[in-house]
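[job 0412] stage=complex_fold ligand=adenosine-5'-triphosphate status=START
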Amino acid sequence: MTKRKELHDGTPFTVSVPCSTANLGPGFDVLGCGLGMRMSVTCTFPESDKGLTVSYNGDSPHTVPLDPSRNLITRTAIQTAASFGQLLPTPMHVAIENPIPLGRGLGSSGTAVVAGVVLANESLGLGMDTQRILDYCLAIEGHPDNITASILGGFVASYKREHPDPAPPKEETIEYKQNYSTLYPDVPDFEAPPCNLGKHLRLKVSPKIKFVVTIPEFELQTKLARSVLPQEYPKADVIFNLQRLAVLVSTLTSDDAKDIDPAVISEAMHDRVHQKYRQHLVPGLPEILSLSYKTLPGLLGVCVSGAGPTVLCLATDNFEKIGQTVVDIFGKHSVDEAPGYEKQKGVKGSKKVGIKASFKVLEVSAEGFTVSRG
Ligand SMILES: Nc1ncnc2c1ncn2[C@@H]1O[C@H](COP(=O)(O)OP(=O)(O)OP(=O)(O)O)[C@@H](O)[C@H]1O
Ligand SMILES: N[C@@H](CCO)C(=O)O
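[job 0412] stage=complex_fold status=DONE, emitting structure tokens
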């Protein structure tokens, strides 16, 4: 719950947040895993009359707005503060260092939302605990799998509650009442979310398993990838996923090394809830999803990472070969095979040219977000 602390004393601080992979096959909107690639956001309080300022160094620099009302991190922080009836302290400079590729299925937006909520919490001494931070992130992001992994780190299962508890009343400062709409005319006021909106549970995962993520050079906005999903599902498909979800979680969290069985995990990572509806948005996906330990020893299973287009291979060995195999399959396709790709913001691929992709071998990030001072 929220227990107010002293206001921030002007000491600079840095929020570091891991990227994440979500779904892991059958766990659509349920499973997530924090991975070893982190964004950092450093807040300093310089002598200046410029109010709130933002700088950005990292992936897709030309697509990230530096206007604090439009940048996802600062906009989230402004709204979080507003829900407490407060303004962020100024002058404040927010310096973002971000290696996480945007719009590729590695939870960049979840990472940004977590950073924004934590930024407000720290700079105003709001005293939110992990659960309350989750409530805010979930209210903004909508689904829990990426944000819970970025909050807690590690392998995380989560759900969103349909009947959460009421939010505490808002107490507005005079400064907020007088200045919010003038300072931030483009940021709609934001009500505090209900309490205990979601629940997340940290699971252990075998340290032998590494996450080979193959990242194509084109973006796929999560909003578009969610818009192609059906409203209703055949009973057989729901059962198909539930069966695999239970087995997948059991095997990945087992202490018994013989449970890391590629024959079981590859089958347990199959999905009928989101991947088949999205495969036209990720050229080459059917071929990639058919890869298996039978031809690639060390490969446990393959799925789309988050909403795509990045592909996740769980593996215990042969990581470079596995990553390169996926890179090569992407290279046989071009982005114009994905209908609607040209409507996506910031799309990078060019017509009729093989999709460029690169892979990274990532470990599970044991730590979720951290805050360091000074
Ligand atoms: N560090 C950041 N600073 C500002 N905006 C960001 C940052 N990271 C992500 N965003 C915003 O989030 C958008 C990408 O979010 P989107 O949900 O589409 O994909 P994703 O989170 O990378 O993938 P997925 O949800 O499938 O894991 C970017 O286009 C940008 O608008
Ligand atoms: N579960 C989400 C993850 C991406 O944000 C999806 O697949 O749409």
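The first strand starts at residue 13 and ends at 22.
[job 0412] exit 0
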